[in-house]
User: Fold these one by one.
Assistant:
Number 1:
Amino acid sequence: MRTQVGIVGAGPAGLVLAHRLRRAGIDCVVLEDRAREYVEQRVRAGVLEQGTVDTLIDLGVGERLQREGLVHHGLELRFGGAGHRIPLSELTGGRAITLYGQQKVVEDLIAGWLAAGGDLRFEVDDVRVDPERARVEFTHDGARHTLDCDIIAGCDGFHGVCRPSIPNGVLRAYERVYPFAWLGILAEVAPSSEELVYCHSERGFALHSMRSPEISRLYLQVAPDEDIERWPDERIWKELRTRFATRDGWTLNDGPVIEKGITPMRSFVVEPMQHERLYLAGDAAHIVPATGAKGLNLAVADVGVLAAALERQYRDGDATGLETYSQTCLRRVWRVQHFSWWMTSMLHRLSGDDPFEPRLQHAQLEYVCRSRAAATSLAENYVGLEHV
Ligand code: APR
Ligand code: PHB
């Protein structure tokens, strides 16, 4: 088999890239090791930056997103028993975020891709990637295949095969593992607040988010090795109620929990994001802690750079975009890493007994809520920087 771009992984990165390439008349094949049902049901974050929304609409897969996505113009920071609104849109010239589950984004991208006759193979096995020859070998429906490409896009997430196929010594990894994780639930209950609530409390961080007027998404900071079995639903609601409590008696609606899981918190980047003819994008190249809600948005930004570079290569024979791919992406990656680390450090209960830390966090939170300059800095990063 032959194609121009072999895409490994059908997450947001791989699928957005496929759509962009198709529109530019560039041929590609997408290989995914999981089943379609699995990737469409995997619950992940759900905050889309304006730029991500614009990209999805532009690709013709934004119809349901525009109908069902919840557009938010602000968020709440809660600490010391009181809430403080950050008016995101007012501070950023009208930009907003949209709440829409990542699995719906993936569902829409897959449906659009298959409807347009795109080549996407689920449940491929034993994928081998050769960065030098731009060759992917894989098993599908019991037969072994070889896919020869001009380039390979490694969009196979943090645990994929593309990054490890790069020889030792080429990549440098930068990593920080945080001493906490998030326990997340989806609950069948109307959101208790119209906007997201990022809550810093003595007992740890909590986040109130949502997926629809009927479904709430909530998170609790827990120990990194926490056993989910120790968290029956009643305990989760009780802990959420304690952390979110305000002096003026805010109430948290509860309801049946329909999904729960624990997500580790880490920051990770490899440099460069390219080796020979293999280009890494999204979680395959970097992970951000979920506090800034940036993972999906960063993945979409990477493949935007890659698609533009490939268009330039095929249309004009100009390789500049491909040559500078890693450098271009890494500028945004590190900006977003800093923002995600900053939000994480400001909002979580840090380990150890150092009484200095909570005082610093409190001072920073107050500053962000009182200073228009500080609030604008949070807001412009949160809604997504147009230029980095
Ligand atoms: N072969 C083919 N596909 C693979 C392989 C493999 N060996 N290994 C993993 N995959 C698939 C995964 O099953 C998944 O569907 O690659 C896809 C990677 O998708 P994501 O993990 O969603 O990563 P990405 O597309 O970069 O999107 C980033 O995902 O982790 C979240 O919250 C994060 O929002 C962020 C987004
Ligand atoms: C979510 O809705 O899943 C969500 C929202 C904001 C975050 C992280 C996750 O920072």
Number 2:
Amino acid sequence: MIYISQFNQLALRDAAVSEVKIFDTTLRDGEQTPGIALSLRDKVRIAEALDEMGVHVIEAGFPTISEGEQQAVRSIAELKLDSRICGLARSTRKDIDAAMACGVDYIHTFIATSDIHLKYKLKMSREEVKSRAIEAIEYARSHGLTVEFSCEDATRTDLDFLKEMHIAAQDAGAQTINVPDTVGVISPAAMEYLVSELVKVTKVPISVHCHNDFGLAVANSLAAVRAGARQVHVCVNGLGERSGNAALEEVAMGLFAYHGIEAVDLSQIGQVCRTVSRLTGYPLPNNKPIVGKNAFAHESGIHVHGVLGNASTYEAFVPELVGMHRQIVLGKHSGAHSVRDKLDQLKIDVPESLLPVLVNRVKELAETGKEVDDAELMALADHIMARGDRQDIVKLKEFAVFTGKGITPTATVTVEMEDGSSNTRSMTGIGPVDAAINAIRGAVNESIILDEYRLSAITGGSDSLCEVTVVIKDSSNGGKASVGKGIGSDIVQTSVEATMNAINRNYHRIKEDRN
Ligand code: KIV
Ligand code: ZN
């Protein structure tokens, strides 16, 4: 299910598009991302995953650059996948030969056409560039290759010359002509204008290759489609030179949402994006559209309430469409609905009377910037249920601990006793926890001794909640043992909470024994 704006249909009613091909360049432009170097094995795995999801063309590499690159392109070509396997080549026989030697039957050949590139990089005239392109295309076609041609830096090329190049390229036999926004400088409106101009002179399908320097690569690609482009170059997770290329997952969802085209198997998106993230070592930002951790996560009480009623209230489409899952996150904006929903999922039955206590604990923890995960929620729920509705007999009013290198840890505690009186005591200890427990004993009852202390982390992370279990014995109560537990993110405070719980349990038992 997809719940998009009705204005899309109104705005796009004249742009009927039935087929758009996906040309994936994760293994070529994506691998040019600073810091990424994929092994041959990883490249093969990515190619297989792209093929599996139905990508039309995979640009497997730039064979002329190295032996290793050739080996990777050759290995991928040998897989005989359904996707067409393409090698990149400058407009030279040497580059085209290198691609052919890898066994590909599709090449993407390019030459720069903007005056900036002609003057400062190629030091060639427009006429020289044109003949070089024609010669390369004819050479590749004469060897039976499918040829896609690009005017590099097309979006900064003089329009008349660009049209001249397109006509020359198609006359030479290019079967697709790609329009690279090499430096990511065009706007969606300008891309729409440019492609609609090029469509007038280009008989073969037009493709676009958009870089993301202004964060507009996907918008520019979709604008090009509106104007008549029938192929889009993409990289998984928006990888690529500098700020990257148009992201496969975003373009694919844009084509589906706005034109009803399922260019690839959308349900594989989540898996493919995670695999590429893992193999490239480039983490997916939490707020990455479509596949980020937060893409289908809801925390605020109002949103969770809405989504639990009907997902369309706060979701553009159901996560399962792209192989993702909805997540209700417990954080500082969470309300009772979120906590109850999570408890139901975990099959934990917390009585309604204790729910506000649990919601408050979640919020308190979240105030410190912590997200409460499932294991931690279970531990908190257990802890609160074990305590039940029991009121504290001795209440902790104030607590401070002073510690540091070369300083004897000292804790000061103020407690309110059952009769309303206040006791304050400062004590030292061999560590902050020891000092805190000594101060509590001093303030409450010297006859209490600490018999056992256990600390464990509930989950693995450095900000995970810890659980402290304390066993005390009270010689004024026949040496009976009482257990107290605390759960929290701060070890000292959680130890204090556990000790106070044990003390209160002890006093409740004394009362029960009396009655
Ligand atoms: O960005 C670009 O211009 C390219 C070319 C090789 C098409 O990647
Ligand atoms: Zn590029």
